[in-house]
Known about the structure:
EC number: 1.1.1.49
Domain Glucose-6-phosphate dehydrogenase C-terminal: 186-485
Enzyme class: oxidoreductase
Structural class: alpha/beta
Bound molecules: 6-O-phosphono-beta-D-glucopyranose
CATH superfamily of the largest domain: Dihydrodipicolinate Reductase, domain 2
Distance between the termini: 38 Å
Strand content: 15-25%
GO molecular function, one term: NADP binding
Amino acid sequence: MFGITGDLARHKLLPAIYDLANRGLLSPSFSLVGVGRRSWSADDLRNYVETAVRDGARTPWRPAIWEQLAAGMRFVEFDSFEDDAAYEQLTRVVDDLDATRGTRGNRAFYLSIPPGWFPAVTERIARSGLVEESADAWRRVVIEKPFGHDRASARELDALVGRIVRPDDVFRVDHYLGKETVQNILALRFANTMFEPLWNQRYVDHVQITMAEDIGIGTRAGYYDTIGSARDVIQNHLLQLLALTAMEEPTSMDAASVRLEKEKVLNCVRLERDGVLDLNLTTARGRYNAGFQGGLPVRGYLEEDGVAADSRTETFAAVRLEIANRRWAGVPFYLRTGKRLTRRVTEVAVVFKQPPFLPFESAAATAVGANTIVLRIQPDEGITLRLASKVPGTQMELRDVSMEFGYGATFNEESPEAYERLILDALLGDAPLFPHQREVDLSWRILDPVIEHWTAAGSPEGYRPGSWGPASAHELLARDGRTWRRS
Length: 487
Ligand code: BG6
């Protein structure tokens, strides 16, 4: 694991590995080699991982499981990722694990490092022979986003990784695909009869995909200030949600079939609004100001530690997309994401058209909105169906009500964390939950013109912490005679 000392490893990857071990899903031979720019002894590594696990694991602490896992942990100190001698040491450590713990040459390289280091690391991994193909052992590379900065750099990155392993052995992590509720989109659509007949332009008015967070950027300025919310979230999580919501039925749930359908639909995504490309009308971006959230004063984005004084990075992004195919022609998909918004919520809302005729007195009928299916991705995982109902009483008064399915109330077992599923699948070589390079490429095709447009347009518009984003985001929907759901 390159980047074992980083935030992601500490908060997500290491706890997930322990949880997998605790659920009996890791081979007893499983061994973890941490690579990092620290002078750590074996005990330092052990203490660090133990703290991460105790703070972040989902399953109970079991000393026997921990001892088994800790016995297979090694640390290799790198002065820098260009330190040739350290790769030799890494090779020795990995060979020794093969000999002493029965790992049999099977290796996954988890690269949780800034993409700027990819050339140096991949070149040296290749030179060290660590990934040389072998008939009876597997070699895989797991990479974390960002998959490049734009389409051109994503292609360069792919070419680099392609120099060390075959395309099928590259596992690109989009952790949203590891979430149970995201996988359930395909179950809802393709394991039921009642939704799919309505899932098209004849009945659907529009779709809103929201990923809102109430937190700011915290200590991540170094990463975030060069990225912004469109690259951080829309390029990957939100376009994946769009693809799963809008794709055709795959012939099976294997990786090739699911990826093929996602690619097809991503290929149909357009930035034009009714055939006209004007990104001033179809995109919005913002940056949080100083203010109050949850009753406490919070800093504005520009005052956050590590943010450049002349930064133009957005912390809120919204885009209106259309899908040019028979199923979706004329149905806008609105995507939005932001930091320091009203609350943390991720959902896909499919909003249906109003009934063509309502045989009720107008006062009764105007009180009802459109039928909506809300796929609640998090935090309150489940599905809501909004429908009109008669209010009890002597009048035919109507009101919108909700039918609810909640994971918490329905299933006894807690959902595993996304990273548990993804790490396990990478070890098993199971690829359906990892986006293919072609999907990454198509996502950048959609986003590159938007980011270019924003870069030329100056600073993002400020918004109040605890709000639902800048005024331009509301105007974006108002132009179409719609409003964002107040989630
Ligand atoms: C990450 C983004 O991919 O997702 C972060 O880089 C964001 O900026 C995070 O906070 C949110 O993940 P989750 O699983 O909490 O929705």
